[in-house]
Amino acid sequence: VMLLSYSVISIAFIIGRAIAPEFDVMPCSYTILQIMLLVMIRRIALYDIDLMTSIAIQQSETIGIASFDNEHRYLGCNSLAEQFFPEFKNLYVDSRLDSSTEFFSTLNQLMDVADSHKGIAETSLNVQKKSFKISVSNLYVSRFFSKRHKPAGHQIKIEDNTREQLNIRLLNNYNETLTKEVTEKTEKLEN
Q1: Which residues have CB under 8 Å from 13's CB, separation 6+?
Q2: What whole-number distance in Å separates Cα of residue 49 and Cα of residue 161?
Q3: For 9-55, what is each residue's pLDDT tens digit?
Q4: Stated pTM of the model
Q5: Looking at the DSSP assignment, which residues form a beta bridge with residue 135?
Q6: Tens-digit pLDDT profile for residues 108-147
């Protein structure tokens, strides 16, 4: 990239002096070079799958995300996590997660389970007629910042699955009703 930029600027300088010595083409060449660099940066960013996935999750507006380091210190969360669990609003960055609420106690337990089960733990939590699926996975620092690719903390994924739980209950009720009807009709046929 640097070699390309120096080449473009040098060629522009030489051609500019050869064609029109009274006209300075350097500002124009810098502008063209900046446009080229912006296009290249944009293209390179498309290849960063981790970044694209992170942006997609943030924009999905269906998944709450919170992050904690290995000592269970709060790193941050998105607005949807705060909406699902307002307790996050009372946490300060780098403050250790205590077990003052049922939710925080559950998070602490899940992070401990994740540490002992290959970095993955999952549970469901019912709060005020809502059902949430809470998943914990290891949080890794980019290889750019750390040569050791070991977990730097935990990422908490919170999904509102109230509708799914309602559908499951409805299907279970429907299955029970069908089973009862089949049993009753079978008994009638046998008599």
Answers
A1: 25, 26, 29
A2: 27
A3: 788 888 888 888 888 877 887 888 888 888 877 777 666 666 667 77
A4: 0.58
A5: 122, 157
A6: 888 888 888 777 888 887 878 888 888 888 877 665 555 6
* HSE (side-chain half, CA atoms, 13 Å) at 117: 12
Tell me the C-alpha to C-alpha distance, in Å, between residue 191 and each of 122, 177, 186: 50, 21, 9
Q: Could you tell me the maximum CA-CA distance found in the chain, to the nearest angstrom?
A: 111
Q: What is the C-alpha to C-alpha distance for residues 69 and 155, in angstroms, rounded to an integer?
A: 9
**Residue of 160, 79, 90 lying closest to 127 (CA atoms):** 160
Q: Which element (helix H / strand E) includes 174? A: helix 162-190
Q: How far is Cα 45 from Cα 183, in angstroms, rounded to an integer?
A: 61
Measured between alpha carbons, how far is 125 from 183 in angstroms, rounded to an integer? 35
- Which bin fits 158, alpha (ψ -120 to 50), beta or left (φ > 0)? beta
Burial class (CB in 10 A: 0-12, 13-18, 19+), 156: buried
Tokens, residue 180: 């009862």
